[in-house]
Amino acid sequence: MIFFIGVVLFALGIGLSVALHEAGHMLTAKWFGMKVRRYFIGFGPKIFSFRRGETEYGLKAIPGGGFCDIAGMTAMDELTPDEEKRAMWRYPAWKRVIVMVAGSVTHFILGFVILYILAATMGLPNLVDKPVVASTACVQSDTIDMDVKKPRPPCAAGDQGPAAQAGLRAGDEIVAVNGKETPTFTDLRTTLKPLSGPQRITVERDGAEQTLTVDVTVAQRLVENKEGQRSLQAQGSIGVLRAAEFEYNAGSAIGGTISFTGDMFVKTWEGLIRFPERIPAVVRAIGGGERDPDTPVSVVGASILGGDAVERGLWDVVLLLLASLNFFIGVFNLLPLLPLDGGHIAVIVYEKVRNWLRRVRGKPAGGPVDYSKLMAVTMVVVFIGGAVMLLTITADIVNPIRIKN
Questions:
Q1: Hey, which of 66, 168, 202, 359 would disulfide with 176, CB 3.0 to 4.6 Å?
Q2: Between 299-311 and 2-32, two packed helices, what is the crossing angle to 10 degrees?
Q3: 355 near 365, Cβ under 8 Å?
């Protein structure tokens, strides 16, 4: 029961995000004096609506999106006599761009607010594997017996590892080893692996960098190759544990959220770039193969993950999922493809550049772009987008990604 409540709650969170996206378009359009005919949440059959002023507000049966109908969004729109002077395409380019970008900006603001709440209450995860020291520890050889799998013995009381002996402490971010940058904890581990003896470790502490000399210890570590075969290998270690999350107060959460938001934008863009190459894995998942947790999910899949998180009391995961989804929708909508907001922005920018070039050549400004000439490209984008959506929804129903215990 809790799972289904979680699914509904998460779906409502997504619905609220969509409603605010369309509200961003509507409010900026009204601010500039454009006529907003309709503001609806959902698609398909109308459940109810009401009119306030010149705008009809309503809810439709399929909660998969929404729309804001602005008079004269393109020159192809049919207009009533009272709408002619207020047609959107007649307004200056900068005003039209603000209206079109307002939806994505709303997602970014909402995502930031969600992350700030998360930072100020539960902390933020170490999303990009920053080599921030959570604590120092002794360095041990991995004495697991290959057959019996005996656990290695605990550290001796008062035993300090090389990092602690050199003065590293919790909160330090290791930025370089012998001058070689280590932007992630994985980079740090890879850099230390072949080393032994005294090494120069540069850390950032309280906003300033300082270099410490750390005696790298060689320890036997149990490693596993791609074939699943395990073996003991000698690897350099200094005895530090990576911070899994960062804690803030109400004030410091602002800076932490700004930094984390930047990291999420990078991750979101990388995810969009890699999106096409992940589609075959979604197809395999529909066929019964194991679902790769790194494959794209639809609103259905995200809601299932949200339900799992609520069922397990992982409210930090719920908030992080909502923030991630808002950033993804915001960035995705800015892609320069029709019918996305970014496609309309691209047309507006094209008109502006074209008219500037005509003015330089002593010619009058050209008319608005004829969207009918772009219809074929738009339909291709709609078809591909619809197919991908159907594919991911199917995979999320028959083989969803789940949060395991």
A1: 202
A2: 130
A3: yes
Please list, in sequence order, all residues whose beta carbon lies within 8 angstroms of the beta carbon of residue 153, skipping any fewer than 6 positions away. Answer: 140, 143
Alpha-carbon gap, residue 122 to 314, rounded angstroms: 10
196 versus 150: the higher-pLDDT residue is 196
Catalytic residues: 22
**With 90 as the cut, is the pLDDT of residue 57 above it?**
yes
The predicted structure's pLDDT at residue 56: 94
Q: How far apart are CA 247 and CA 269, in angstroms?
A: 26
Q: How many CB atoms lie within 10 A of CB 135?
A: 15
pLDDT in tens, 175-209: 999 989 999 888 988 888 888 888 899 999 988 89
| Average pLDDT of the residues in 348-359 | 92
**How many residues can be counted in the chain?**
405
In 112-157, DSSP assigns E strands to 124-125, 133-136
* Residue at 217: amino acid letter: T
Cα–Cα distance measured from residue 248 to residue 122, given in angstroms and rounded to the nearest whole number: 8
Distance in angstroms (rounded) separating the CA atoms of residues 320 and 324: 6
